[in-house]
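User: Transcriptional regulator, MarR family. Structure?
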Amino acid sequence: MTASRDGLLEELVREMPWYISASMRFQMAVADQLDMPLADVHAIGALVEFEPIGAARLAELMGMTSGAVTRLVDRLERGGYVRRSPDPADRRRVVLRAVPERVAEIGRYYASMGESWQRQLADCSDEQLRFLVEFLRRGRDDTQRETARLRSDGRAHGTRRRREP
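Assistant: Predicted structure:
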């Protein structure tokens, strides 16, 4: 690697936490506009990404206890953001699905961000765009692995304090 490439990689690694932090602040602002807890906004995102999904899987993704995720789903159902329905593969089980019309209403808060990204990416080549898509997918996978590692090696999920065996 050349010195300039090393410098660019270091700069990228330094900038990534600030990008993530700014994204989290944006998510908090969206939650404020929707007058809902940040966890609820993130749960809607998880539902859209992984649906149909059971409550246990949602609790795992969110790092919440089963009781906490039940209350979260109850709030989202009352707000019309989620529907519970029988699992087609196992009718004893219930799966959760986001309500597309309500998700679209949330989408309006992301529209200007999407337009900004479109402008930034307009001059990128197909190769650059493919790279960015792959970078984001790998980053998401890495983040999910690190989240799982933290929850298994650090504090137990859904708790404030790790219980000793």
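Residues 124-165 form one domain. The radius of gyration is 19 Å.
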